[in-house]
Amino acid sequence: MKDLEVKVFDNDLEKAMRVLKKKIQNDGLFRRLKMKKAYEKPSESRRRKQRESVRRLRSAARKARSRGRR
């Protein structure tokens, strides 16, 4: 896990908390914590990994198509 650091300017804690939450979300910590909350069966794990793979492939194909149109 990366070291996350947020600087607070002018005692603006609300803004610092929003920035920290965004950094944690982008890092994937919330997703990992949610997954570790309960046991995941091996068959469910395989299905989830397959769905994630398909999603990544579709996203990459969509990006490739949009780059080709320019």
Number of helices: 3
How far the N terminus sits from the C terminus, by CA atoms, comes to: 37 Å
Radius of gyration: 18 Å
Low-confidence stretches: none
Approximately what portion of the residues adopt beta-strand conformation?
under 5%
Tally of separate domains: 2
Q: Level of helix content?
A: over 70%
GO cellular component, one term: ribosome
Family: Belongs to the bacterial ribosomal protein bS21 family.
Protein name: Small ribosomal subunit protein bS21
GO molecular function, one term: structural constituent of ribosome
Describe the structure.
This protein has helices spanning 13-27, 29-37, 42-69. Helix content is 74%, strand content 0%. It has three helices and no strands. One of its GO terms (molecular function) is structural constituent of ribosome. Belongs to the bacterial ribosomal protein bS21 family. Keywords: Ribonucleoprotein, Ribosomal protein. Pfam families: Ribosomal_S21.
How is the secondary structure organized here?
Blueprint: H1 13-27, H2 29-37, H3 42-69
